[in-house]
Amino acid sequence: MNRTATLTRKTKETDILLELDLDGSGKSHIKTGIGFFDHMLEGFVRHGFFDMTLEVHGDLHVDGHHTVEDTGIVLGTAIRQALGDKKGIRRYGSAILPMDECLVLCAVDLSGRPYLSMEAEFTVPKCGDLDTELVREFFYAVSYSVGMNLHIKVLTPGNNHHMMEAMFKAFAKALDMAAGKEPRLDDVLSTKGSL
């Protein structure tokens, strides 16, 4: 079974095309118009062993908010669609990932219930051309569009670039684990019988 999704979303603020393969090899073609955001998403794809094509045309003459948030909505929706009925997946995933002086924890539950808990304090307004406050908006949009319980905590802060990169890579590793196949399971990992 192919765990893929192709989505488009067009509004007055953004025009997005996204193709996702959860069982890829880490290949990406990403153009959002925000170079640092591209860099973060490329790291997410590579370290999660996903394949993703993403083209975003957003109202960057206003700011990056709509581009980042809507990308999160579309990515989350694609993950949800690619997961299908979630039969045979591990459901839970976690990672503690170092990036030089920084250490980040990420835990995921593909429960169908959305929730974001994020503890990260950035000390600069931007990394490259990405507003640091939009990182929370991105992860919030992803978690609610997937229906995912997502916890991200910066355990050891430091350079803002390092913190952010560790967050995206830790999320990739945790999601890859949670979406991975559990050979001992042929149903969903829930006593309720559904996720």
Task: Please explain how this structure is put together.
The structure is a single chain. This protein is of the alpha+beta class. Helix content is 34%, strand content 31%. It contains 4 helices and 10 strands, in the order βββαβαβββββαβα. The chain has helices at residues 35-48, 65-83, 134-146, 160-179, and strands at residues 4-10, 14-21, 28-31, 51-58, 92-99, 102-109, 115-119, 126-127, 130-131, 149-156. The strands form 3 sheets. Strands 1-2-4-3 form a 4-stranded mixed β-sheet, with helices on one face. It is globular and about 45 Å long. The two termini are 19 Å apart. The model has no long low-confidence stretch (mean pLDDT 97).
Secondary-structure blueprint:
Elements: E1 4-10, E2 14-21, E3 28-31, H1 35-48, E4 51-58, H2 65-83, E5 92-99, E6 102-109, E7 115-119, E8 126-127, E9 130-131, H3 134-146, E10 149-156, H4 160-179
Parallel strand pairs: 3-4, 7-10
Antiparallel strand pairs: 1-2, 2-4, 5-6, 6-10, 8-9
What's a quick, concise take on this entry?
Strand 8 and strand 9 (130-131) form a beta hairpin.
Show unreliable segments.
Answer: none
**SSE arrangement, N to C:** EEEHEHEEEEEHEH
Integer-rounded radius of gyration: 16 Å
Quick one: biggest sheet?
4 strands, mixed
Class computed from helices, strands and strand pairing: alpha+beta
Beta content comes to 25-35%
Shape: globular
In the sheet with the most strands, the strands line up as 1-2-4-3
Number of strands: 10
Helical residue percent band = 25-40%
| End-to-end gap | 19 Å
Average pLDDT rating: 97
The number of helical segments is 4
